[in-house]
Design goal:
With about 625 residues, the protein is an alpha/beta fold. It folds into three domains: about 150 residues, 3-Layer(bba) Sandwich (Glucose Oxidase, domain 1), CATH 3.50.30; about 110 residues, Enzyme I, Chain A, domain 2; about 300 residues, Phosphoenolpyruvate-binding domains (TIM Barrel, Alpha-Beta Barrel). The chain is built from 26 helices and 17 strands.
Length: about 625
């Protein structure tokens, strides 16, 4: 296969599998729609002018869906200041009944999630139950009611008091707590008026909900109402909502409110939640490009056993395809699909949904369940990567001016050694009868890696002294996601048992571009020559020391860049379970020799424009 043919693989594969590369090529083909202009030179108002346009948001939970918009008002409106005309009609007994009903509903939510998902996600509602039982919250409401304050007024005043305190902090954990408080208060008011879950029977099939804010308890209702997807317009996306959307497989995008102003109920929307793009009044051109993906909705996850046990190029070059997961339910799906293993288990996900830092025994149970689900296949457990935008709501973190460059990854672990040591002990215990691979995030020096190894060895000694069954020879790896780690890749390769390139953070840190910041989106270019050469340097270091190397992040599932990565020498890719089959089919149609030639040309190219032309990528380049 020639280099030119390799570049055109997307088009040739589309004949056999229309959806295979559609989500990659559509992004390029529809780029012009993101800056629409009307005949008078103004931008169209989505839904009002009837013009098709695309709104760029942030993906939260994968999926490609189409439907008519249903715009829902802010869910916190009921907590606004003011006295309800019938507030005086409620008694303390009515309030106690509302508290009891709310507690029963929350327990029901927990049970419904436990029955549907093999995951401790129901822990999300533990915080709600704790708040409901808190003497400083509902207890104060009772005291005010006894003192003569109207029931509804007491609920609103106490809630707003606590929200006001928490909202002064920019910590994401406090933001999550504010949502919990508002969710509880809203449910109390609804139960007080016998209106809880009113509209639960509304059928939103064929509809995409557009709302400023969602609470965790809303997610189950939306699932029951069969909504196609959700667009959040203000307030951002909390960890709880993100995890619930992913677990319940509800496609979701966050879009700035001002961009959605013209979208009204009834507006036709096509939402590509894989990339965060919302097409308003999509025309025939968009429908033609997305048609095959929409037709396969509901079958996006390949059938059991669809993935072949081994992945090779046409000329026999072996590539390992592993899954990137963070939930037990994803481990089950990964095994059923037939994936080789888990190349990245994001252990922090269980911390984000827990009501407090999980104990050693709780973590042991979770990790053991993941291992059992994978039935002996390889699993790489990444230790806690907390910090940045991933802070549990129960953790009071100090505010940082730039949290993405602050206390995160192993820096967080070293500052909170008790948490790190507890996790390591749980992992060692869970793997007492099987191999264990532990990956350390955000490694910046050989010193940092050695310190992590020393801590693991100390935990092993303690478990041995206590006669606790454990894995005594875990493989310890380093994530390469910082420019400084690339510079010492050879030293890290000599020290580590294996390496993993975290492409998202590597691109972000090397190019000094926050990938979530739309203002600098054009500067986030994974095919930048510096990025490709950095990956080559890590590949060469791993080869020199005969250490396994994998690559995870968006680049690992980018079907345009995979041939270059394979050509550079990447032999293991870690991708979301839903994308493994597509990546496998692409690789099976490639020739490794042609990929090496393509990579050679890309690595020699000094400019973004040359590499873009080589890879058939359309991109508008800023001046600097």
């Amino acid at each position: 296969m020639s280099t030119q043919n390799l570049k055109n693989t997307a088009r040739s594969l589309a004949v056999g599998d229309k959806s295979l590369l559609a989500d990659e090529t559509i992004r390029q083909q529809t780029k012009d729609l993101t800056t629409p202009v009307l005949s008078d030179g103004t931008a169209p108002r989505p839904g009002k002018d009837g013009e098709q346009c695309a709104i760029t948001g942030k993906p939260v939970a994968d999926g490609i869906v189409m439907g008519t918009a249903v715009v829902i008002a802010a869910l916190t409106d009921s907590l606004a200041d003011g006295t309800d005309k019938d507030a005086a009609t409620y008694t303390l007994a009515d309030f106690r009944r509302a508290v009891r009903l709310t507690s029963e509903q929350l327990h029901e939510f927990q049970q419904r999630i436990r029955e549907g998902i093999a995951e401790p996600i129901s822990n999300i509602f533990d915080s709600h139950l704790a708040i409901l039982d808190d003497a400083a919250f509902t207890g104060e409401m009772r005291r005010r009611i006894k003192g003569g304050t109207a029931v509804q007024v007491a609920i609103k005043e106490v809630t707003n008091k606590f929200v006001s305190v928490f909202s002064r902090s920019t910590s994401l954990g406090f933001s999550e707590k504010c949502d919990d408080l508002n969710d509880i208060a809203r449910r109390l008011l609804a139960n007080l008026a016998h209106q809880a879950d009113v509209g639960m029977n509304t059928d939103y099939h064929g509809r995409i909900l557009v709302t400023p804010l969602l609470f965790p308890s809303d997610m189950l209702r939306i699932l029951a109402q069969r909504a196609e997807g959700i667009i959040l317009t203000t307030g951002g996306v909390t960890a709880h909502i993100s995890i619930l959307a992913q677990s319940l497989e509800i496609p979701m995008v966050f879009a700035q409110a001002n961009l959605m102003e013209g979208v009204t109920t009834g507006t036709t929307l096509l939402m590509d939640a894989n990339h965060g793009t919302i097409y308003v009044n999509p025309g025939d051109n968009i429908m033609a490009r997305y048609g095959s993906l929409l037709e396969t909705r509901g079958r996006e996850l390949p059938t059991e056993g669809a993935i072949e046990p081994q992945t090779c190029t046409r000329d026999g070059h072996r590539i390992h395809l592993l899954a990137a997961i963070g939930l037990v339910s994803e481990a089950s799906a990964t095994r059923q699909l037939g994936a080789e293993g888990v190349g990245l288990y994001r252990s922090e996900m269980s911390f984000l949904i827990h009501n407090g830092f999980p104990t050693e025994d709780e973590q042991y149970t979770l990790y053991r369940k993941v291992m059992e689900e994978m039935e002996g296949r390889e699993i790489v457990f990444r230790t806690l990567d907390l910090g940045g935008d991933k802070i549990p709501e129960y953790f009071v973190a100090s505010e940082e001016p730039n949290p993405f460059l602050g206390l995160r990854g192993m820096r967080f672990a070293y500052r909170h050694l008790e948490l790190f040591n507890t996790q390591i002990r749980a992992l060692l215990r869970a793997a007492h009868d099987r191999p264990l691979k532990v990956l350390f995030p955000l490694i910046s020096s050989v010193d940092s890696l050695r310190h992590a190894r020393e801590l693991v060895e100390a935990a092993i000694r303690d478990l041995k002294a206590a006669h606790v069954p454990h894995q005594s020879q875990p493989a310890l790896g380093a994530m390469i996601e910082l420019p400084c780690a690339v510079g010492i890749a050879d030293d890290l390769a000599a020290e580590a048992d294996f390496l993993s390139i975290g492409s998202n953070d590597l691109v972000q840190h090397m190019l000094a571009v926050d990938r979530t910041n739309e203002q600098v989106a054009d500067w986030y270019v994974p095919w930048h020559p510096a990025i490709l050469r950095a990956i080559r340097a890590v590949v060469e270091a791993a080869r020199h020391h005969h250490k396994p190397l994998s690559l995870c992040g968006d680049m690992a599932q980018d079907l345009t860049l995979i041939p270059v990565l394979v050509g550079i020498g990447i032999t293991a890719l870690t991708v979301p379970p839903r994308r493994i089959l597509r990546v496998q089919r692409l690789i099976q149609q490639m020739d490794a020799a042609a990929a090496e030639e393509l990579a050679r040309k890309a690595l020699a190219a000094p400019t973004l424009a040359e590499i873009s032309e080589l890879l058939n990528i359309q991109h508008s380049f800023p001046s600097s």
